[in-house]
Amino acid sequence: MNIYVDSSALIKRAMSEPQSGRLIETLEGHVRDGATLCSSTLAWIESTRAIRSRLDDSPPANVVDTIGAALSGVLEFPITDQVADIARRIGP
Q1: Residues 51, 56, 61, 64: what is their CA dihedral angle, to the nearest 10 degrees?
Q2: CB-facing half-sphere around the CA of 55: CA atoms within 13 A
Q3: DSSP character for 15?
Q4: Of 31, 39, 81, 87, which one has the fewest beta carbons inside 10 Å?
Q5: CA Rg value for the chain
């Protein structure tokens, strides 16, 4: 089974926000059950830019580590016509 992880969830994986802990537990549970975490190229771009803007004054290594934590273990799917069509129809 594939579990789609949007940009807000990617950010919550790496930065402490409300519900980060619960989200991480839920995603880890799915992975333990054999699921694959996946996301679109757009979510990778959005989450990376959001993390960079929040850590603007941090050392570059910290920024790289935080982005790595957000994206680690998540398969990136390019934005094709099929991905865009599914994204328009999928529920929250």
Answers
A1: 20
A2: 20
A3: S
A4: 81
A5: 14
Residue 56 is classified by DSSP as: T
**Please, which residues have CB within 8 angstroms of residue 44's CB and are 6 or more apart in sequence?**
10, 71, 76
State the Cα–Cα distance between residues 91 and 10, nearest whole angstrom: 18
Strands (E) located in the chain: 2-4, 36-40, 74-77
For residue 46, give both structure tokens.
């959005």
Tokens 């982005």, residue located: 67
Token pair 């839920």 is at which residue? 26
- 2: tokens are 């594939």
Nearest to 42 by CA among 86, 91, 78: 78
Q: Give pTM, 2 decimals.
A: 0.84
Per residue in 29-77, pLDDT (tens digit) is 999 999 999 999 999 999 999 999 999 999 999 999 999 999 999 999 9
Q: Are 26 and 15 in contact (CB under 8 A)?
A: no
